[in-house]
Amino acid sequence: MQKSCQIFRAGHRLGLVPLPAFRPLQYFSSFSPAQACHSNQVKEQPQRQTSTKDASTTTTIRPSLSMWQLKFWNCRSTWKRAGINTLRCLVGCTLGDFSALWMLQTYYPALGMGKIMAASMASGITTSIILETVLLRRGVDQLSWPMAARTAMGMSMVSMVAMEAAENIVDYHLTGGVVALGDPNFWVAAAVSMTAGYLAPLPYNYHRLKKYGKACH
């Protein structure tokens, strides 16, 4: 037994015995910012430090970044992924929100602006989940319908509510919440409100991607 161990060690030094290969983990998403910008909880792979007498293996832990450090917010690939996720959510939220707002104002004006706004926000969140389910199924992720639906419904409610709230507050401030499709001022106000809805949850989405590697949408 001792002789075989000596032969095995000699083979390692001469390069005749290959080291075991480790397969990289496959990430759930087809595009992950962690591939370019490491998250706070990632450990570096063991590095071999060779000397003339013996070889030793050491493992170092990358120091964690705080969200209060400027370097935490400097990952371009994370911003890109967060921007795509937020844009997809914005499309779904805006379609449901403005459609419900127009329909309720047209056919059920007696409900009052408060109830109409609340119903339009719920409609926007619902259409966002539906759109995300379709994209997860038909897009590059190619998830099954049940898995796509569970993933879409597991999106961050904080992000979606922040988006809906910002969009509706700005729209109500500029137009009083009135949907007038023939008025150019309405479309200008809609563009401003959608910009506010996009920017409101964007830092939060970046933070979750950077720190936890989890997409909100």
Structure description:
The structure is a single chain. This protein has helices at residues 2-14, 76-107, 113-138, 145-153, 157-175, 184-199, 202-212, and strands at 47-50, 55-58. The protein has 217 residues and is mainly alpha-helical. Strands 1-2 form a two-stranded antiparallel ribbon. The radius of gyration is 26 Å and the shape is globular.
Short description:
Keywords: Membrane, Transmembrane, Transmembrane helix. The chain has 217 residues and is mostly helical. The chain is built from 7 helices and 2 strands.
Main beta sheet: strand number and arrangement?
2 strands, antiparallel
Uncertain stretches? 17-36, 38-57
Described by the principal axes of the CA atoms, the overall outline is globular
Q: Which percent range describes the beta-strand content?
A: under 5%
Radius of gyration, in Å, reads 26 Å
Terminus-to-terminus distance = 56 Å
How do the strands line up in the largest sheet? 1-2
Secondary-structure map:
Elements: H1 2-14, E1 47-50, E2 55-58, H2 76-107, H3 113-138, H4 145-153, H5 157-175, H6 184-199, H7 202-212
Antiparallel strand pairs: 1-2
Using brief descriptors, characterize the structure shown.
about 220 residues; mainly alpha; two-stranded antiparallel sheet; globular; DUF4396 domain-containing protein; DUF4396; transmembrane; membrane; transmembrane helix
